[in-house]
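Before relying on records like the one below, remember that each one covers exactly one chain. Contacts with other chains, cofactors or solvent are not represented anywhere in the record.
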Amino acid sequence: MTRTPSAAPSASRRQFLAWSGAGAAATALTAAGCSAPGDGTDAKAANAAARGSSGADALTRIGLDYPFTQLPLYSTLVKLTTAAARKRGASLVTTSDNASADTQATNLGAWVSQKVPAIVSFPMVFEATEAIAKRALDAGLIWVTYGGSLEHQSADIQFSFVEGGTLLGEAAAKWASERLGGKGKIAFLTDSTIQLGRERTQGMIDAFTRLAPGVDVVAREQAIDPDTGLTKSRAVLAEHPDLNIILGVTDAAAYGGFKALQQTGRAKDDERTFVGGQDGAAPSLLAIRQGTFYRASAALAPKDIAGAVVGVPLAVAAGKADPSVQVPITFVQRGDTAAIDALLAQNS
């Protein structure tokens, strides 16, 4: 049965959807978002300069810097964000970072020099990006941090990171109790490099180990993409061929684990295997819908993300209070056909 995290109940989701529409209200923004860290002096000055005298109408170009072009979400996000920007009278420009922190820094530096009026960036190395974000604010540009927070920013876009991991860990632990008698082996595909990854990892590991203490944790491997998930999972399976559970910090990594299990002889519908991830990537959602042992995802709706990428900088330019936002999560499992179909339709 589909459920949303306690941090984002149905009322919060309605507020988010209302906020991301063209007629957003400041009260909805305040309820859904969180203030940027620090005293906000630089951000306030930049926001005022960016909006000029015409408010949000003056913001006609938004830059989306999403470095992980290898993830299934990337092409969908660019398509939906381009359409969302067009509806709001703005154009979208993108970088091509190819998952390289150095390339990202170069591209962001170029945008600051070119004075792209609003930059939405998913930093690969948050500490290194601080200086670039500060330069952007000093230049009178809007800076929105995607997937975490910086000291120097106008606002941020987050995804209930800990809650998503917690929902996944809880579901896997419940399954282990019911199907494995609380015994078995689990491998976690994790990320320790950025806030999003660390908090999701913490949520899923803490929830699972608390609720299923009898399941042996045999591996914690860094992996966020399908190829790495496949490689790391095959290595774990070489040592633990009786592995029961793989949980991923992303659906992309978990899907690599799903394929590794199949390649080593696991039947697609094996009753003693559970794979789950986070994000709601289309291949993973399809596998859940088809009744395979890929059983769950803490999913994000691509249209919600696209709406935030466009809506947050516009809200900053319009002078809205607390323009940051938490994009809501929908947790889906076998049987949640309608919710899965709705998410898949956004990925088409």
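The chain has two domains: 10-157+303-327, 161-299.
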